[in-house]
Amino acid sequence: MKQTFVHDASQQLQSAVFSSGLITKLICLFCIIGYGLSFSSQCVQVLTVIPGRVMPPNFWIWTFITHSFIELHIWHTIIDVIVVFLYSKMIEPLWGTKELLKFYFIVTIPNALVVTFTYFLFYGLTFNEDYLFERPIYGLASFIGAYSVVIKQIMPDTILATTPLCKLKQDHVPLLIVILSTILWIVYAVPIHFLIMLSFGIIISWTYLRFFQVHQNGTQGDMSTSFSFASFFPPPISPIISIFANTIFAIFVKIKLCKPFVKKYNVASSSNITITIPGVEAVDADRRRQKALKALNDRMKLKDLPSEAWPELEESQSPLLPPTHQLEPSSIIIDMNNSNKILTPTKEDLNQHQISA
Fold first, then answer.
1. Which residue range(s) make up the domain with 291?
2. Amino acid 124: pLDDT
3. pLDDT tens for residues 104-122?
4. CA 141, CA 130: separation in Å to the nearest integer?
5. Which of 5, 26, 308, 330 lies 20 to 30 Å from 77 when distance is taken between CA atoms?
6. Is 272:300 a contact under the CB 8 Å cutoff?
């Protein structure tokens, strides 16, 4: 069983390596070269982000680009290469080389700025100069966190594993890796910047994909419900997160940082309703549209099923009786205590019927 799993994983990795694009191969190649350069302390000082050196008079601003290729541990490098190869195999054909490269810089450079600012904040609170000169910022953790968001957007309902307690879906991966990274940081397995970079990589990538990414059909962002910020959290707490996220979004709309959410309904015919959500890729939109149409057609079929003939509320007059002769309405007692629900006419009804006869 174990050998089969290892064999399948190795085959998928080989397929991803040979079928990946140029940008993916270059990123992985630079990661391997960066790990080799990490054995030189001077290279680590020059290529990683050191908060005290990016400020005047040094201005080592090139480190915001080179820091992501440096890893100090071999197992970090292996994870980076495997994740980049496997995920880029699915993402690069959909986005293209330019969009993937753009996404890489959008995630990594602002992330390095955020961590640098965080270290300055730590220094202001503790006056510990290690945060300025002795704790370099490096690694591809931000890009790995961003990849988990992209895969959630492309196939959110994919089941990764089934456990006795629950099913692990792609929706759960971003929050799960943040929790796992927090545990690793508590036991000193990863530095603090790894957790910060991973967390902000998820936030930055989701913000870009949600509001700013321009798609091939000319739309911008992805305002689908399955990609909301609350969908990253378990159902018990997602309503609370939704209130917070909607408040932040309303503030961004007022300051014109984001555009308001608009849905377009296209009634094509009497039996089909097409809902166009702005900013969804064609492949993803077709998948969701087919799923919605299938559910709608199933409901229409259930609605069109012939129902039983119910008696009309207004009884028509019998043609055998004269127009002026109509039966008096009779009162009927329903015995609810009797399980057989026998309908019993009253004594007054029997007497009235004999007199009429």
1. 263-298
2. 93
3. 999 999 999 999 999 999 9
4. 21
5. 5
6. no
Do 143 and 213 share a domain, yes or no?
A: yes
Write the DSSP symbol of residue 258: S
Q: Residue 85: its pLDDT value, please?
A: 86
* Distance (Å, whole) CA 349 – CA 357: 12
Residues in the chain: 357
Calculate the alpha carbon distances from 99 to 93, 105, 152, 180, 202 in Å: 10, 10, 18, 29, 18
> What tens digit of pLDDT does each residue of 302-342 get?
655 554 444 444 444 444 444 444 444 444 444 444 444 44
Provide CB contacts within 8 A for 176, sequence distance 6+.
168
Interatomic CA distance for residues 275 and 273, integer angstroms = 7
Supply the pLDDT for residue 319. Answer: 44
Residue 246 resides in a domain: no
Question: Residue 347 has which token pair?
Answer: 């004594």
Instruction: Check whether residue 99 and residue 171 sit in a common domain.
Output: yes
Give yes or no for residue 36 having a pLDDT over 60: yes
Residue for token pair 């990609």: 227
Residue 117 within a domain: yes
Burial class (CB within 10 angstroms; exposed 0-12, middle 13-18, buried 19+) of 152:
buried
Compute the C-alpha angle 307/311/315, nearest 5°. 155
Asked if residue 357 belongs to a domain, the reply is: no
> Which amino acid belongs to residue 209?
L
Mean predicted confidence (pLDDT) in 82-87: 86
Residue with tokens 């990683």: 48
Q: Which of 111, 21, 35 is nearest to 69 (CA)?
A: 35
Q: Over the stretch 173-217, which tens digit does the pLDDT of each residue have?
A: 899 999 999 999 999 888 999 999 999 999 999 999 998 888 888
**Quick one: 164 and 270 in the same domain?**
no
